[in-house]
LysR family transcriptional regulator
Amino acid sequence: MDSPSLRQLDIFAQMVAAGGVTRCADALGVEVEQVLRDLASLEMRLGYRLFDDLDGAARLTPAGRKTAQAMTLLSEDRPAPVEEAALPPQPTPPSLPQPATLFPAPPTVPEGPARLVITLAAPPPVFGHFQDALAAFEAANEDIAIILDLHIHTAQDAAVALANGRADIAYFYALEEPEDLKSRYGWSEPLNLYADSGHPLARADSVSRDDLAMTPMLSLETRSGMRDIIDAALAKGRVRNVMPLLESDNMFEIIAALRDGAGCFAAFGTLARDLGRMSGIKRLALDIPLPAVEIRQAVAPRAAEKPAVEALAEFLFL
């Protein structure tokens, strides 16, 4: 998962270990406010909440547990091909389905029936879109464990993960159907530009490409998978693609720069949703819309050997 900053992921891992904001801050030697800001920035980038009750004994949300598990897998030197594996059976109350594995302990082989492991690869915000559906599928299929790979973003990423056995199902970003990967269209998310409400472009009734050519851009860092698809969409939409004024995966830095009138920022999906809800930030009224970002689903060729994989792919697609 290379999108959020390493610092934010380190703080998330420390929070999992510490179990509370104060203990996490003490362990890292930083202020509590810094921990809270970095966690909020990470959650905004991911598109979902990681913890409940940060003011007390911070508890991982179901999505937070899945993310912690994915971080553990990604910390390994080389991902192993995913096959049917035996995982510990998890006692699950009927109304409270829980993830199949917990962080940071690795799975062990129990004295009992094996569980079928399905690996789902997707960008983190896409996982956030169907996290409830995953929980429901696991609750209804106790013999299946779903693990995540959260560093897939492009069609090329998905093709490699599916081909080498690292993933059974992959969701990825695209601007059109890729020629070399069989996939199906899931949904589209509009790409928009945002600026401080006092910025001249934010006050304009219509913003042209010439107007944008004279306005600095703020961007996510180059190693971000979202940055790649945003740059491709801007280029396709004939928006100049030059070195941005600011590159950061810390959303508080981006928001502060926006509110200082430093330029405009392109976003889609949950990130765009959260920006659109913030006071003092406005979506630009472009005269020609930017290309939308497609979310597409692809399934490994060997999925026919695992009926549960095809069942999950259909369940998430509905």
